[in-house]
Specification:
With 105 residues, the protein is an alpha+beta fold. The protein is 50% helix and 23% strand. The protein has one domain. The chain contains 4 helices and 2 strands.
Length: 105
């Protein structure tokens, strides 16, 4: 059986992660709130070949999905999780590939 450390971590925090995820979805879908971050930087725009720099200061909505936030919070690597999932699926398919297909039962 393939080692699945990311899936094991996910399994351990599943209930907490589910509750937090549902709460965050409720905030964004029902209450129409956005999770934002404070930005104080210089923005750059290319305007007809001319670079324009301007100050950006204030709150901007974050671009991360809830799934990404939860994975980061619980220290779960989504790329590794996907690789583990593919390895498990490959492992499940292997025994089936050895058996010849008999359409007559």
């Amino acid at each position: 059986m393939t080692a699945t450390p990311e899936h094991e971590k996910l399994h351990k925090v599943q209930e907490k992660s589910q509750a937090i995820g549902e709460f965050l979805e409720w905030l964004t879908e029902e209450k129409r709130y956005s999770i934002c971050q404070y930005v104080n930087t210089i923005g750059e725009v290319d305007c007809e070949g001319e670079e324009i720099r301007f100050p950006v200061k204030g709150y901007l909505p974050i671009l991360e999905r809830i799934e990404q936030l939860l994975a980061e919070y619980f220290d779960i690597d989504l790329d590794k999780l996907e690789l583990e999932k593919r390895a498990m699926l490959d492992e499940l398919r292997r025994p089936n590939a050895k058996e010849p297909c008999n359409p007559n039962g």
